Amino acid sequence: MSKKKGLSFDDKRTRMLEIFTESKTFFTLKELEKVAPKQKGIVLPSVKEVLQSLVDDDVVSSDKCGTQTVYWCLPSQAVQKKRSRIASLTEKLQSKSDQKQQLLEKREELRNCHQDTEERTQLIEQINALESQIEHVKEQLNIYKESDPEVLAEIRNVSQIAWEAANRWTDNIFSIRSWVSSKFGLPSSEFDKNFGIPEDLEYI
User: Fold this and answer.
1) What start-end ranges are recorded for coiled-coil regions in this protein (predicted)?
2) CA–CA gap between residue 155 and residue 24 (Å, rounded)
3) Which of 36, 40, 173, 200 has its Cα between 20 and 30 A from that of 185?
4) pLDDT tens for residues 18-48?
């Protein structure tokens, strides 16, 4: 019997991203190390590496919350990043098209002179190269347009989800600080100092 083939790194990235986009919530690394193997079949030793690759590529966002780091990827962020990529590719396509048109006009001038010069040969080569680049950019543009997620209707709910999650973390920190202060007599200011809690931490 053949050995079952494991997930590729790209497959793991895709499945990890699905955890965020499907739940629309925030996670710590420890939470992801529990969820990813069970829900998406991502083996525990690779969870951190896959997550870091998504953060490095600016696909998943992260921030410190007290002593822990939280990770998230909200639908509105995915939409904005795709729109920015589409705008960039569209601008690049227009620039290449303009450059191609200028070279075509220059080539036509040389043709009218009936001179098979070195300059004309170089221009032809540049035009051919630009045509290849334009086709490549068009392919990329089509990919991003076709994969643009239809989540605009959910954007209104995203801010509420983020707000609730942020306040939930804040409430957890306040509860822990209160318990520690009551249990061990540690002043709140010392607790904040020891655990890196900002002095101005408040509910949003």
Assistant:
1) 79-147
2) 11
3) 200
4) 898 888 888 999 999 999 999 999 999 999 9
